[in-house]
Amino acid sequence: MTDEPSGADDPYRVAEMTWREIETALESTSTLLLPVGTTEQHGHHLPLGVDVYMPEAIGERVAERSPALLAPPIWYGVSPHHTFKPGTFTLSSETFQRYVTDVCASAGRWGIENVVLLNGHYLAQDPELEIVVRELRTEHGLEAFHAPLVDLFAEVAEEIRTGEVSFHASEFETSIMLELLPELVDMDAAERVDPPVESLPLTEYDALGDNKVGWSLTAEDMDELTPTGNIGDPTVATAEKGEALVDTAVSELCRLVDALEDAD
Questions:
Q1: What is the largest CA-CA distance in the chain?
Q2: Exposure class string for 61-82: b at 16+ Cβ within 10 A, else e
Q3: DSSP type of residue 160
Q4: What pLDDT is stored for residue 210 in this prediction?
Q5: pTM of the model as a whole
Q6: Signal peptide span per the entry (predicted)?
Q7: Cα–Cα distance between 39 and 87 in angstroms, integer?
């Protein structure tokens, strides 16, 4: 990958292109980036669309640098644990899996060979998207990949974090939003909410924590854990941290896209 964006003047946002422009673009790429998120509460200081805004903006930066098309995002996901606050939408796991699978499979019919699912609702809907990837590969012949954002920037996040816990709408997500869409962040309303002092072994309340056995929260669990909706400390978030996290995610995804295109 070069330092300068390649093909930045070429269209890549599928929703803004004509079918003839798509046809032309497929001569240069067979990779589709699909931002997958959900619409759910993110505390007092962040908007409901965080989990879509993040992967869509990161996908846009990737498509500016590497040969890929950027699909319209998936706005609704699996968020039953956030329904304790108004504004949250949620789908059943089965509906969500079928919907994402059908979107990707339809792209395969018009020439897409590689699909990268950019997951902004990481941890919570990782299990569903792993199933989607398996079906896309085994049933539809697509080279599919699940890319949870937290996995892409985990090493850098561990290095730059200053808060002890960043689980939901806290240091990482708030920092990324301060970098990408600061006008949607109300830092004056941000509040620190600490999780329980102790959790069961292998089940830490942290995006980079020791969550090894697999678990999920209910709306009742979340209601007991947080009065504001976030868990962790968003007050330590900065745009500088967000820039480091975003740059790392973009770089990692560009490496994947470039390798996929070189292999075609």
A1: 57
A2: bbbbbbbbbbbebbbbbbbbbb
A3: H
A4: 85
A5: 0.95
A6: none
A7: 8
pLDDT along the chain (264 residues), means of 10: 52 98 98 98 98 98 98 98 98 98 98 98 96 98 98 97 96 98 98 92 91 91 97 98 98 98 89
Segments of 75-123 assigned E as strands = 114-119
Domains of the chain listed by start with CATH number: 14-263 (3.40.50.10310)
- Whole-number CA gyration radius for the chain: 18
CA distances from 158 to 58, 62, 70, 106, 169 (A): 20, 23, 29, 38, 17
Two tokens, residue 194: 């600490």
The amino acid occupying position 240 is E
Euclidean distance between CA atoms 252 and 241, whole angstroms: 17
Q: For residue 96, how far is the Cα from the chain centroid?
A: 15
Q: How far apart are CA 227 and CA 224, in angstroms?
A: 7
Residue position matching structure tokens 């941000």? 190
Q: What are phi and psi of 183, to 5 degrees?
A: -65, -15
Q: DSSP secondary structure string, 173-224?
A: HHHHHHHH-GGG--GGG---B---S---TT--SSTTS---S-----HHHHHH
Give residue for tokens 């990737």. Answer: 62
Contact 96, 77 (CB under 8 A): yes
Could you give the C-alpha distances from 202 to 209, 213, 218, in angstroms and in order? Answer: 8, 6, 18
| Token pair recorded at residue 235 | 């007050």
Write out the two tokens for 191: 């509040």
The helix/strand/coil state of 144 is: strand
Backbone angles phi, psi at 69, to 5 degrees: -100, 145
